[in-house]
Design goal:
Blueprint: E1 2-5, E2 12-16, E3 25-26, H1 37-57, H2 59-72, E4 78-84, E5 90-96, E6 108-109, H3 121-129, H4 136-141, E7 146-148, H5 155-162, E8 165-166, E9 177-179, H6 181-185, H7 192-205, H8 208-224
Length: 229
């Protein structure tokens, strides 16, 4: 457990993590990663094409989801959260709200997964089907995220993890993704020290072929309803 201090309001908030860590981990330094202009061009083209296509095809289902979120629990439809993107630049991640509005009233708290009591009834359905992630298509269209890459995390978690996973910030050297190698190979319940291994491996070996394989594996995970966060 740690304390985060908000410099603007001098408010202290408890950061609750689900486990204690007694070991330290050291992540290899990637230095300046290899530039891949051809790969970057086609990756961006794939991001825009897929995000735009699904935004159009799923416009009506997303509207229905938005209405159901509003009708089944008090509060706003969308959940905005500041996370770190490429090179540590702060960005807003957009999701359909799946928790109560007072979910972090007592402090920043790591999700307990499908058994988290803060999740609403309809929110549980959205998480089980991963439909809560659909608004992130907008983040992909605006270029803040990609279809494939390390999942974005909050700055406070980066600071926490870096205390015992030295080099955790290495994953910020590429755009965060809607899905990633860690999610399709290890699942959403991997510990940070386990996820970073997959993230570094992805950064070192990133290619269009690897991205496409991850996308197809993600589709299989979604249809089988595996790896619910």
């Amino acid at each position: 457990m740690a304390i985060e201090t908000n410099r603007e309001t001098t408010e202290t908030r408890t950061v609750i993590l689900p486990y204690e860590n007694s070991k330290e981990y050291y992540i290899e330094s990637l230095g300046e990663i290899e530039k891949k202009p051809v790969y970057d061009f086609f990756k961006r083209a794939l991001d825009v094409t897929v995000a735009l296509l699904f935004s159009v095809l799923l416009a009506l289902p997303m509207l229905i989801i938005a209405l159901l979120v509003k009708l089944t629990s008090k509060g706003c439809v969308f959940y905005h959260q500041e996370r770190l993107g490429l090179n540590g630049i702060k960005m807003d991640v957009l999701k359909f709200r799946t928790m109560r509005m007072d979910a972090e009233e007592d402090g920043i708290r790591w999700s307990e997964g499908k058994d988290d009591p803060r999740i609403t009834g309809f929110g549980r359905i959205l998480r089980n089907t991963h439909l809560d992630e659909l608004p992130q298509l907008w983040c992909i269209l605006t270029g803040k995220m990609s279809l494939v890459g390390p999942r974005p995390e909050r700055e406070v978690y980066y600071n926490e993890f870096e205390q015992y996973i030295h080099g955790f910030h290495e994953r910020l050297k590429v755009k965060p993704g809607l899905t990633g190698l860690a999610q399709v190979c290890g699942g959403y319940f991997l510990k940070p020290e386990e996820k970073i291994v997959y993230d570094v491996d992805y950064i070192k070996n990133r290619s269009m072929w690897l991205d496409i394989k991850i996308i197809f594996k993600t589709m299989r995970v979604v249809f089988r309803r595996e790896g619910v966060k």
